[in-house]
Amino acid sequence: MSAVSSSSQSVPAWPAVPDDVNDLVAAVWPESAERDRHGVLSISGVSATELRDRFGTPLYVLDEEAVRTAARRTLDAFRAAAALHGVQARVYYAGKAFLSTEVVRWVTEEGLAVDVCTGGELAVALAGGADPARIGFHGNNKSQAELERAVEVGVGSIIVDSFIEIERLAAIVERTGATQSVLVRVNSGVHAETHDFLATAHEDQKFGFTLTDAPGAVARIREVPGLQFVGLHCHIGSQIFGSAGFQESAARVVELHAELLAGGEIPVLNLGGGFGIAYTVADDPTPIEHLATGIAEAVARECEVRGIPVPNLAFEPGRAIIGRAGVTLYEVGTTKPVDIGHDVTRLYVSVDGGMSDNPRPALYGAQYSARVASRTSDAAPQLSRVVGKHCESGDIVVDAEFLPADIAPGDLLAVPTTGAYCFSLASNYNYVPRPPVVAVRAGRARVIVRGETIDDLLARDVAADAGDEPVGEGESMPVLSERSETK
Ligand SMILES: Cc1ncc(COP(=O)(O)O)c(C=O)c1O
């Protein structure tokens, strides 16, 4: 096994061989991450070994203060940018990034509203104490039941996505006598520079109305007495680093906004989320303050050109709030050197989770970094690939990273920046139970979502204890064993 230099052909453009394989690169770890005097990683004062001993691995660790700080910083950035143009900004936390009642509590306490996109997310937001009037409800295929529930609880706005949905909603408000504020989601046609599956505002995809169809949608909404059209919505994609795409999109949407003013006031313009974060040292996202200023300026400029008032602005960041606050802890199970040619050895490091707790590398080719968490090492940097335990060769957690060459079974491995779209996209592939989520703050750790057990998984298999006899309709199923205690 040989450590390699980054000039080797088979080594990807990133990562560069680190000067120190133990170093915690500031941009991708929560600010509270540090190594204690024994070299053990700690997050918000709780050591990785304590977390392993108390809660097991794999484990999602969420730094509460990091979530709160990012929420405050983002809200301040957009409020300040909007204030420069005499308007207000509302920031919705995009719950799809990571939703639990505790996280809802944190972000709402910090002043954020909440964006949900299914009845399930709505239920969690409400259970977490979110004010319904400060919930935005998204989705390209909301069911009748979901729409009825949203109207019944009084969500602040429903972001409509199709003509069929407008008719469903019209029927609900006519029948119930309710009044519902509605935004119309549009495709600005801007293709954000990001992975294709993450880009959502070019026209050949499922979300929103084209700029051509949107006026018809707004006209129809304005005909329905119980529906109140309050603004346009546009989300161009996710993990976007520069502000050019947002500004171009804002310009196009403001043009439509200006045309629609002929039919009445439009108080809000919602420009979605998608603000990128650093997953590796190769990523260089624009600070949120610069993005906020640039977007607000673009909107104000376009409004000035058209001689119209600047609307209040709304945004929906998910990843930018929670991404960097999350770290996943794994235990190394096996290692295997593989000769990949050109005198280069890649060390495969298998951990006890994988694509079931983080499907992003398999879904989008997402890149992550990693560090040994249970100790430091003086060994040479070794090109490594961190893989999971699932039956897929694409079950990769960290595609390329330099880890100490003496990494071995039993070591704890920490993968930073796993706060967004890991827990929420997790699956039970290969019947692997989903890990618990532990919140850390000021030296204390507590479970906020318990881990699944094998019993949880078997509990859904209604034929599990039925033997060979098919269970007839109306027959009761056997009672399964008690679920294990929260880990
Ligand atoms: C409509 C909408 N708003 C907000 C977001 C949040 O995006 P991000 O987490 O990248 O900020 C998404 C993500 O898919 C989205 O579809």
Features of the shown structure:
487 residues, alpha/beta, Lyase, Ornithine Decarboxylase, Chain A, domain 1, TIM Barrel, 2 domains, 27% helix, 22% strand, disordered C terminus, binds pyridoxal-5'-phosphate
Helix content: 25-40%
Radius of gyration: 24 Å
CATH superfamily of the largest domain: Alanine racemase
Instruction: Determine the CATH topology of the largest domain.
Output: TIM Barrel
Count all strands and give the number.
21
Per CATH, the architecture of the largest domain is Alpha-Beta Barrel
Q: Unreliable runs, pLDDT <50, ≥5 residues?
A: 1-9, 471-487
Measured distance between first and last alpha carbons: 38 Å
Reported for the largest beta sheet, the result is: 9 strands, mixed
Present as ligands are: pyridoxal-5'-phosphate
Pathway: Amino-acid biosynthesis; L-lysine biosynthesis via DAP pathway; L-lysine from DL-2,6-diaminopimelate: step 1/1
Binding site for substrate: 319, 360, 364, 392, 421
Family: Belongs to the Orn/Lys/Arg decarboxylase class-II family. LysA subfamily.
GO molecular function: diaminopimelate decarboxylase activity; pyridoxal phosphate binding
Spell out the blueprint of helices and strands.
Blueprint: E1 34-35, E2 41-43, E3 46-47, H1 48-55, E4 59-63, H2 64-83, E5 89-94, H3 101-109, E6 113-116, H4 119-127, E7 135-137, H5 144-153, E8 157-160, H6 163-176, E9 180-187, E10 209-210, H7 214-223, E11 227-233, H8 244-260, E12 268-270, H9 288-306, E13 312-315, H10 319-322, E14 326-339, E15 345-351, H11 360-364, E16 371-372, E17 381-387, E18 396-404, E19 412-416, E20 437-441, E21 444-449, H12 454-459
Parallel strand pairs: 4-20, 5-6, 5-13, 6-7, 7-8, 8-9, 9-10, 9-11, 11-12, 12-13, 15-17
Antiparallel strand pairs: 1-2, 2-3, 4-14, 14-15, 14-19, 16-19, 17-18, 20-21
The structure holds pyridoxal-5'-phosphate (PLP).
Pyridoxal-5'-phosphate binds next to α10.
